[in-house]
Design brief:
about 525 residues; alpha/beta; Rossmann fold; Dihydrodipicolinate Reductase, domain 2; UDP N-Acetylglucosamine Acyltransferase, domain 1; nine-stranded mixed beta sheet; about 20% helix; about 30% strand
Length: about 525
């Protein structure tokens, strides 16, 4: 590999960087303030430059750097490297404060260089295989993850168990779920040293009703590194501390059958995967991105998120309370759109410029709202809903999963969408969602109900209180229960005359294949 990468910090973990980069053929330099250690490396790798001060190395023209020094030095070292416009991988934690991590991320973006964090387990072949299988739908909807990282020692005196062990598992949770948790509760005990916790249990609640817990402990009689991932159709288990290191898939779960929870106890399958070395894969990935190609795994944002979660978990651990992170409450105020302080916007939503979201409304995860929309009070949107531009949704409306609104749709107060045709309280039927499409310019009047699985045509007009249970043609005027077409509506919203002319705006239409089309404009 034709790269010259310099390792800063040749201690316990830095030695592994040095050895691995040398095997990859791209070890260019070593920095350490221990002169005896440097002399040993000069003898072992005579072709490699050595430095006692990282500032001298930064001036030497290396393609990139890795930083494996004590965590308290990460921020200052990385800042110098980035300001010199060099790519850098910083071992975890990227810094000791989320605020500093955000500053490094912004600086790297400004300088146009890659900033990567050493979340090693994101390059573990078993973890990557599980990630691929989750995305392929092997276990259905992701519901619950737990991880245990337990051992007797090594006990730290400078940091608690949460900061020492949990960053690995937090980074995996973020990798699998891809969203910030909305609530964190952490509890633990300090037994060996005052105020330094030896054991902690952290519960993370994510959007879409995904929950995780992380149990870490360095006062445990045996070693266990286990992660379990549970979905609606199956489960994964992986224990890195076992000799076999197998990924197990359990075709198990609970199904609701005729209103009763019935155990599904299928076979257990061993999932094959390539058992390569995580550090080799991580450093190879970093080296291959020193050409400026964007880093997509263990990037700066991932480092920031892990620190934010650690800080909130620490706050909960020390105060005995719970904390919010990603956003039951929207933190995306800015100038692009307005959101009332009582509105709730999940962290992974996309809200268009000029849109207004009013009191007590909630936009759920993976939802998209276009530009210049007006979302009234007590409106629920999502999850996974797309709303076009210039839509107006009045008070007390729920736009559920499965519903799509094109541009310019009007939803009157308290109108109702459904998404499951024959729901039962005790039977889960979200796999039976019937999509509803409301096309451009349509109006749905107050208290109307749209039975799922229908299409409302362009510029159709649904009268107040109507019950719609079948497709509605473009421009159709529908009223009653069940909804019946009684005429045609103009683009401007007025009822057309019998000769399909609008007496208000002057537009004229003609019939075509059971619908009407615009003839001419006045």
């Amino acid at each position: 590999m034709d790269k010259r990468i310099c390792v800063i910090g040749a201690g316990r973990w830095g030695k592994n960087h040095i050895k691995t980069f040398h095997e990859l053929g791209c070890l260019g330099g070593i920095v350490d303030n221990n002169e005896d250690a440097l002399a040993g490396f000069q003898k072992q790798y005579p072709e490699v430059k050595t430095f006692s001060d990282f500032r001298d190395a930064v001036k030497d023209g290396f393609d990139a750097f890795t930083v494996a020094t004590p965590a308290e030095t990460h921020f200052e070292i990385a800042k110098v490297i980035i300001n010199n416009e060099n790519h850098v991988l910083v071992e975890k934690p990227i810094t000791l404060k989320a605020k500093e991590a955000r500053l490094l991320k912004e600086l790297a973006e400004e300088k146009g260089v890659n900033l990567m964090v050493g979340h090693l387990l994101l390059f573990h072949p078993a973890i990557r295989k599980i990630k691929d299988l989750i995305e392929a739908g092997k276990i259905g909807k992701l519901e619950y993850i737990y991880s245990n990282r337990l051992n007797l020692g090594t006990v730290r005196t400078e940091e608690n168990i949460l900061w020492s062990f949990a960053p690995h598992d937090i980074s995996i949770f973020q990798y699998f779920i891809g969203k910030l948790p909305v609530e964190i509760v952490s509890r633990g005990g300090a037994f060996l040293q005052p105020h330094i916790h030896d054991s902690s249990m952290t519960i993370l609640t994510y959007p879409d009703n995904i929950v995780g817990h992380i149990f870490v402990n360095w006062l445990h009689p045996f070693k266990e590194h286990r992660i379990v991932v549970i979905g609606s159709k199956g489960m994964f288990s992986y224990e890195d501390s076992s000799n076999e290191k197998n990924i197990l898939f359990y075709e198990k779960g609970i199904d609701w059958i005729k209103g009763e929870p019935i155990k599904r106890d299928g076979p257990t399958e061993i999932i094959p995967y390539d058992k390569s070395m995580p550090l080799t894969e991580e450093l190879r990935y970093f080296a291959s991105h020193t050409n400026g190609a964007p880093v997509e795994i263990a990037d700066a944002q991932n480092g920031v998120e892990v620190l934010e979660i650690l800080e909130k978990a620490t706050e909960s651990l020390l105060t005995g309370g719970g904390t919010e992170v990603g956003g039951r409450r929207s933190e995306v105020r800015g100038q692009d759109f307005f959101s009332h302080e009582t509105a709730v916007i999940d962290s992974d939503c996309n809200i268009g410029k000029g849109t207004k979201i009013w009191h007590f409304s909630h936009v759920l995860s993976n939802s998209i709202i276009g530009k210049s929309c007006n979302i009234g009070q007590n409106v629920v949107i999502g999850p996974d809903v797309t709303i076009g531009q210039n839509c107006k949704i009045q008070n007390n409306v729920s736009v559920f999963k499965g519903v799509t609104l094109e541009d310019g749709v009007f939803c009157g107060p308290s109108m109702v969408f459904t998404n499951v045709y024959n729901p039962r309280a005790e039977i889960r039927k979200m796999d039976q969602v019937r999509p509803t499409l409301v096309k451009k310019g349509a109006t749905i009047g107050a208290n109307a109900t749209i039975i799922c699985g229908v299409t409302i045509g362009r510029y159709a007009f649904i009268g107040a209180g109507a019950i719609v249970n079948r497709n509605v043609p473009d421009h159709a005027l529908v009223v009653g229960n069940p909804g019946n077409q009684i005429g045609w509506a103009c683009e401007c919203g007025e009822r057309l005359s019998d000769d399909l002319m609008c007496l208000i705006c002057g537009k004229s239409y003609e019939k075509s294949d059971g619908a009407i089309v615009l003839l001419r404009k006045s």
